[in-house]
Design goal:
- The protein has 443 residues and is of the alpha/beta class.
- It has 17 helices and 15 strands.
- The protein has two domains: 351 residues, Vaccinia Virus protein VP39 (Rossmann fold), CATH 3.40.50.150; 76 residues, no CATH class.
- It has a seven-stranded mixed beta sheet with strand order 4-3-2-5-10-15-14, sandwiched between helices. Strands 1, 6, 7, 8 and 9 form a five-stranded antiparallel beta sheet that branches.
- The protein is globular and about 65 Å long.
- The two termini are 41 Å apart.
- It comes from Erythranthe guttata (Yellow monkey flower).
- This is Protein arginine methyltransferase NDUFAF7.
- One of its GO terms (biological process) is methylation.
């Protein structure tokens, strides 16, 4: 996720909304992503972000920000001093971004470890998977905490597996975790795509899966309707006739991942909504007088990943953290993304996801209500009408604001400044934690 950091206090709110800062990368024509045949929007986004040579994360994977030491919050006077300190860090460091787990190390990871320890089944060896582990700061912090606070046998028998798509970051994670010799025997990195079902085995033992700021960069699909009552259509991306630009192409709904996501979200394919006949008639009249096109972004990447995880790890417990909303989104549609690039030290938002090139990040807000529905659906293949009830559910789920999560599981006094200001609690109001654990429901 692209961040916007500036020394001016007027830019403070922008920084607080996004936690990563990105350098300018060489441009790569987005038309090269699309061949002679159209592709689904999710495939376009996946290539724009993860193409091995020209994707956004491939170009910047070697520049993940990592603090030399933890910030001593208790020595800072307050908010102004904290922002000045951050500004100095960015100015002297040729880095791309800092995540919350890095800014608040080790306390952020310690809160996650405490949440795991309170719920984990210690009758079997503790096994943790982390997807998209960045520089390894979370892994090291979690393992440090378990070593110091869990029974000795828990740490001695634990395993921690990082599933990382970037070879550069995989190497960095080994270096970070390797700062503690005893961790290395318990830690491993599997350099692969976590959403590829062929790369997973099948594990029946309980385990934990951690995903920090992963959901926001998972590919999404887009559906379109020309007005309020017309049927929804899939959106594809194609080259224009001259091959120099990209445009959208609308096709009838056929893709199974899109239709499955619509069913979970309870979106009717024909564009109709539930209600009285009088209400539907009035809506039809209104649509004819004031036709308005509709667009809706669907988290099909999250659906695919959770399908894979539940299939491979049926007894997994999940802890995920991400942004619940994003401000100043220019791109149309419900759950629309921000597309942001940075050049010459200045961030700029693009007006279209089709303009995304090698230097542009595409990141989405996470609809945690929908995430919960997807999680329940994937765990037991619930029908949409059963997701809202307790019928057949195999998961206990909880969504918490970051401040509530850290007050419950963390040590917020460690990130408090002298005047009581606490950036971990006060500055990330648009982030949430999602916890999901299996139940013993066999009905």
């Amino acid at each position: 996720m692209a961040a916007r950091l500036a020394s001016s206090s007027k830019r403070l709110s922008s920084f607080l909304i996004s936690s990563k800062v990105t350098p300018f990368c060489r441009a790569y024509s987005s038309t090269n992503i699309v061949g002679e045949s159209p592709i689904l929007v999710r495939d376009f986004i996946h290539s724009a972000l993860y193409d091995p040579e020209h994707g956004y994360f491939s170009q910047r994977s070697a520049s993940v920000g990592q603090l030399d030491s933890s910030i001593k919050f208790n020595q800072l006077q307050g908010r102004k001093a904290y922002m000045k300190y951050l500004d100095a860090i960015y100015k002297r460091s040729d880095i791309s971004w800092f995540t919350p787990v890095e800014l608040f190390k080790p306390w952020y990871a310690h809160g996650i470890a405490e949440a795991i320890m309170r719920t984990a089944n210690f009758s079997v060896p503790l096994k943790i998977y982390e997807i998209g582990g960045g520089s390894g700061t979370c892994a090291k912090g979690v393992m440090d905490y378990i070593k110091l606070n869990a029974p000795t046998r828990v740490y001695d028998n634990m395993t921690y597996v990082s599933v990382e798509i970037s070879p550069t970051l995989a190497k960095k994670q080994l270096e970070t975790v390797g700062e503690v010799d005893s961790h290395l025997a318990k830690f491993s990195v599997e350099c692969r795509d976590a959403a590829d079902p062929n790369e997973w085995g099948h594990e029946e033992q309980p385990c934990w899966v951690i995903m920090l700021e992963v959901l926001d960069n998972l590919p999404h699909d887009l559906i379109y309707s020309k007005d309020q009552v017309s049927s929804w259509m899939e959106v594809w991306v194609q080259k224009t006739r001259d091959g120099q630009e990209l445009s959208e192409l609308y096709k009838p709904l056929e893709d199974p991942l899109i239709t499955s996501c619509m069913e979970i979200l309870d979106i009717s394919k024909d564009g109709s909504t539930r209600g009285s006949m009088a209400g539907s008639f009035a809506k039809n009249i209104w649509a004819k007088i004031f036709p308005s096109p509709r667009k809706c972004w669907l988290p099909t990447g999250s659906l695919k990943l959770l399908q894979v995880l539940h299939g491979a790890l049926p007894k997994m417990s999940l802890i995920a953290s991400d942004f619940s909303y994003l401000p100043d989104v220019r791109i149309p549609g419900e759950r629309a993304p921000l597309v942001s690039s940075k050049k010459d030290g200045k961030s700029s938002d693009l007006n279209s996801y089709l303009d995304a090139k090698g230097e542009a990040d595409i990141f989405f807000p996470t609809d945690f209500w929908l995430l919960e529905r997807i999680d329940h659906h994937c765990s037991v293949k619930l029908k949409p009408r059963d997701i809202s009830s307790k019928k057949g559910k195999k998961r206990r789920t909880l969504t918490l604001d970051t401040s509530s999560f850290m007050e419950e599981f963390g040590l917020p006094t460690k990130t408090r400044t002298k005047d009581g200001y606490n950036p971990m609690l006060d500055d990330f109001k648009n982030t949430k934690f999602y916890l999901s654990v299996p139940t013993h429901n066999t009905k």
